[in-house]
Structures are given as structure tokens and as C-alpha cells.
Design a protein that fits this description.
The protein is mostly helical.
């Protein structure tokens, strides 16, 4: 997605908008990944719990309950391993990391623009070039499939400072 800056729009508004878009894209891709990771952690805790219960209390339980706990003790870590392999195959892709890195890089450049290049006359052109470079890097990092929604509602671009 290439957005040509308009002359009457301050460059910081464009930069903050692109930051917000990449930040929202990163968060959107992070949610399912962390949801699956949470289930893997829960299964790991359950496996440890089943191991303790089986070891300590198996002599005091009926044989059918003891057998059921042993089956759960074996199947829970296997399920967690299969789930971890699934997550690593389908959800760990570099897309979410590329979006997060792009957002943080834009944020860094915004602060450079506002502080280090404060008195430079060509700072707008410098920031435009940096934004274009970062966007190309994110595009490549996502395998050429960068789809960005409009600016998220959680950030009000017009109130973040002019350029």
C-alpha cells in the first residue's frame, strides 16, 4: 500500500497514522498466537498436576480412576506438543514480528524527527524517505502481502502534534 503524502497534511500525522496502522496489525496478529500459547501453558500445568496426583495418590484411588489419571498424564503432554507444533507451523510467522518491528521503527523515527532533526530544514523529506523505507521493509517481511486497515480509532492522529 503506497500512500502519497498530501502537501497540506503534516508529516507527523502521516507518520503517526502509519504507526497506528502497523501497531493495530501487529496486535491483531498477536491475539490468536497468544491465545494458543495460553492453552499450551495450561496443558503443561495440567500435565504436572496429573503427574503429582498420580504419583502421590494413585495407591489410595480405585484402579479405574488411577488408570484414567495415568492416561491423562500421558495424553496431556502429547496434546500440548501437538498444539505447540501446530502453533509453530501456522502462527509464528514473521508477519506479526515484521508489523511490530515496523511500528517501533516508525516510532523511533518520529522521535528522531521531533528531537534530533528539530532544527534541520530537510527533516520532512528525511522522514518521508524513512517512512517509505520502513514500509518497504515491512512489505518484504510479510512476504509481499501487506494489508493495512484504516487508522485505528484508538489513536487520534490530529492530536499527536504537528510537524
Amino acid at each position: 500500500m503506497t500512500v502519497e503524502p498530501q502537501p497540506n497534511v503534516p508529516i507527523l500525522n502521516i507518520a503517526w497514522t502509519r504507526y497506528a496502522q502497523l501497531d493495530a496489525l501487529s496486535e491483531k496478529r498477536d491475539k490468536p498466537f497468544f491465545r494458543w500459547r495460553r492453552w499450551i501453558a495450561i496443558l503443561g500445568v495440567l500435565a504436572a498436576l496429573f503427574a503429582v496426583i498420580t504419583q502421590v495418590y494413585s495407591n489410595y484411588m480405585p484402579s479405574t480412576l488411577s488408570l484414567a489419571l495415568k492416561i491423562l498424564l500421558v495424553t496431556t503432554p502429547i496434546t500440548a506438543s501437538v498444539l505447540a507444533a501446530f502453533v509453530n507451523k501456522f502462527y509464528v510467522g514473521t508477519e506479526r514480528l515484521a508489523a511490530r518491528a515496523g511500528a517501533e521503527e516508525i516510532l523511533k523515527e518520529i522521535y528522531m524527527y521531533r528531537s534530533f532533526f528539530k532544527d534541520k530544514l530537510d527533516r520532512r523529506e528525511w522522514l518521508e524517505n524513512r517512512l517509505a523505507t520502513i514500509q518497504r521493509q515491512v512489505f518484504r517481511g510479510m512476504g509481499g502481502e501487506l494489508v493495512i486497515d484504516k487508522a485505528p480509532e484508538k489513536i487520534r492522529v490530529s492530536t499527536l502534534g504537528g510537524g
